[in-house]
């Protein structure tokens, strides 16, 4: 297995130019040659960073309004050839390796969301970018592919720590991220033009899998994944106390949050097995909780409870978790709220298994 790879030659061609000059300057610090195109090249030259124009590598100018820039035998070969078994052939063909590609794609989604017309959408379909990204990602054993400006900081830190080199682990991480990026990009384009044709289609992507205690039944295995492009997700909730969530907990949690989110004032929803046991709103949180519980106090046993306002201790004590007579204690599985007062949280922690 090839470990650290020194970045001696890098190709930078980005739509989102945030931080690109800082990354390029770090690469130059370790003697890396920078190859670049169009607008990216102008940004780097304005920052006084020496740049090799891509036409010096391809032997061809940019053409057709920028539709042809990076697609060439020279560029793709420099990314794809196996540095060990193909070294002689590459030398015979005059192919010099490229060790890093930094590329983010034409902003198709942003242009779409701005209401662009059909022709503008077509022009914002990136072809050369995904080709480079996929080529570099396939050959990650020897090439680093960077598609997200948010990764620049960590990459710079690693370059500085390793005298201009990146590890196998980092390159593998970047490879997986790159293939996810091109998959999401193509999915956005495909569904957009399906919509234009009047045919609704949907492509979903999920990641960040968390193992659950069990699935719908105790003998089943389950994982909880986050929708990659969701602005908000139950996946992101802060887990403050108790056992890990199960599949049924998450289903009920989603229903409880959906039920309580549009309530005005103080709101409370109680859900059991995806069925409502109680729903109430008002001005006093404790009274609202009591009213919701009264909706079906039998089914509320082992329920999931959601509040739409930070939970105070006075409300929490309705559960009687500290009652000497255990029959007075109300058993619930999960309580969720936008926040908890320290006193309320301490009180809820009296029940070691209650998820908060």
TrEMBL record:
Keyword list, A-Z: Hydrolase, Multifunctional enzyme, Purine biosynthesis, Transferase
Coiled-coil ranges (or none): none
GO biological process terms on file: 'de novo' IMP biosynthetic process
Any GO molecular function: phosphoribosylaminoimidazolecarboxamide formyltransferase activity
Keyword Nucleus included in the entry's annotation: no
Start and end residues of each MGS-like domain: 1-147
Enzyme Commission (EC) number: 2.1.2.3, 3.5.4.10
Pathway membership, UniProt: Purine metabolism; IMP biosynthesis via de novo pathway; IMP from 5-formamido-1-(5-phospho-D-ribosyl)imidazole-4-carboxamide: step 1/1; Purine metabolism; IMP biosynthesis via de novo pathway; 5-formamido-1-(5-phospho-D-ribosyl)imidazole-4-carboxamide from 5-amino-1-(5-phospho-D-ribosyl)imidazole-4-carboxamide (10-formyl THF route): step 1/1
GO-annotated cellular components: cytosol
PROSITE patterns in the record: MGS
Pfam families: AICARFT_IMPCHas, MGS
CDD domains per the UniProt record, alphabetical: IMPCH
Similarity comment: family membership: Belongs to the PurH family.
Name used for this protein in its record: Bifunctional phosphoribosylaminoimidazolecarboxamide formyltransferase/IMP cyclohydrolase
């Amino acid at each position: 297995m090839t470990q650290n790879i020194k970045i001696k030659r890098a190709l930078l061609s980005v739509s989102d130019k945030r931080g690109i000059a800082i990354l390029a300057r770090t690469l130059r610090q370790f003697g890396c040659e920078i190859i670049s195109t169009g607008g990216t090249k102008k940004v780097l030259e304005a920052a006084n960073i020496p740049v090799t124009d891509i036409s010096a590598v391809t032997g061809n100018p940019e053409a057709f309004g920028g539709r042809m820039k990076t697609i060439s035998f020279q560029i793709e070969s420099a990314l794809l050839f196996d540095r060990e078994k193909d070294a002689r052939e590459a030398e015979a063909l005059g192919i010099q390796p490229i060790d890093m590609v930094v590329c983010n794609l034409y902003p198709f989604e942003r242009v779409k969301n701005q209401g662009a017309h059909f022709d503008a959408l077509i022009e914002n379909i990136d072809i050369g970018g995904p080709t480079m990204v996929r080529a570099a990602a396939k050959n990650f054993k020897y090439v680093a592919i960077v598609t997200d400006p948010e990764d620049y900081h960590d990459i710079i830190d690693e370059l500085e720590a390793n005298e201009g080199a990146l590890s196998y682990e980092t390159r593998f991480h970047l490879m997986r991220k790159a293939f996810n990026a091109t998959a999401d990009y193509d999915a956005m384009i495909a569904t957009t033009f399906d919509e234009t044709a009047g045919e609704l289609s949907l492509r979903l992507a999920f990641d960040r899998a968390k193992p659950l205690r069990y699935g719908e039944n105790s003998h089943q295995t389950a994982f909880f994944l986050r929708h990659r492009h969701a602005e908000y997700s139950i996946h992101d909730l802060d887990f403050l106390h108790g056992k890990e969530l199960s599949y049924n907990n998450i289903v009920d949690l989603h229903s409880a949050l959906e039920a309580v989110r549009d309530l005005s004032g103080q709101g409370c929803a109680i859900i059991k097995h995806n069925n409502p046991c109680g729903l109430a709103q008002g001005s006093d949180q404790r009274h609202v909780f009591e009213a919701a519980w009264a909706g079906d106090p039998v089914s509320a046993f082992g329920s999931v409870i959601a509040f739409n306002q930070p939970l105070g201790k006075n409300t929490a004590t309705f559960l009687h978790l500290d009652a000497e007579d255990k029959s007075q204690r109300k058993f619930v599985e999960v309580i969720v709220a936008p926040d908890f007062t320290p006193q309320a949280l301490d009180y809820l922690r009296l029940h070691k298994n209650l998820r908060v």
